[in-house]
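Q: We require from you a single protein entry containing the residue sequence and its fold in token form, and nothing else.
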Amino acid sequence: MVPTIFSKIHLLKIITSLTLLLVTSCGPPQQLPGKPWHHTTDGFRNPQGSPKRNSWIERSPWLFNRIKNMLFYADKPTASFSHIMPKEEVLEGLKSSLGNDTVTWLGHMTALLRINNKTILTDPWLSRYASPIQPFGPKRYTPPALNVKELPPIDFIVISHSHFDHLDLTTIKELSYKKNISVVVPLGVGKYFRELGYKEVIELDWEQSVQLNHTKFTALPVIHWSKRSLFSNNDSLWAGWAIESSNGTKVYFGGDAEYGPVYESIGKRHGGFDLTLLSIGAYLPRIVMKGAHCIPEDCIRIGRDLKGDSHLAMHWGTVKLGDDTPEEAILRFRTGGKNLNIQDNKLWVMKIGETRKIPKRNN
């Protein structure tokens, strides 16, 4: 049933009232005794020295208008669709690259990594909406490169955080052979998979690792946040991931991130990646996105600080989450790389559905 204009107005009033309630009820968190810095009485928090987000009061006018636009108006970007590969080319690219270490961009932060004959799916979101209340909420304007039934058998799923465009219950519910898939997630995210029948679900804190079938996964600090309901905030952890195979291939999957000093520190301990998968979109307006999403020039700095060799721009050209455009995000990503003296062939801007071989770094 299509909601009427009156039901939409009623829903908007409810959401606004609950948002204001949350604004007035938030208090400063306290560190839990005997736990690391990021464990607090109100959930988790970002690493020390991270940039702060603006207050709900400062962000609420834009958020209110964003909700209103999604409810009442077409919420589509003006971007062209030249960054989408035809389905037959997507399938041919996967077929022709069998046996190699590759990455296929399926859209947003969903990538299909094939490393050492193992298949890894990152932040699988292949449904139409990133929302708990459909058809409300962000709607993708480009289809995923593959639907669930077209995916090859999956060995591992890696999740960066619990936001609906990164942890999509519709997609993970539809995946077959759940008993054969190992799931690696940050603290507090595992329950969503266990409830859907996944048997091997590993939750990790920052700096913890697990070795699974010749593949090592390490959860790394990242600057972001988590939320899946109006009445919980940062109740599950967010993380970037170092993915290292026994054949030497090493990939960084970052999820969403803001820039800060933590990445240089991580680079000293874990750096040296063949490829970094970076989020470059949803960074405007800064009054809302600061502290959660980096500007593209800073996103590539994350890859540089992590001592990555090649860098793949993701989280653009799929769904409208901010006021920035895909064209601007790409331009600023490339400009940022140029300013850091990173070669153009190391700055990957792929089409949705494109497959590329992962080159080994020289050092």
Summary: The first strand starts at residue 39 and ends at 40. The radius of gyration is 20 Å.
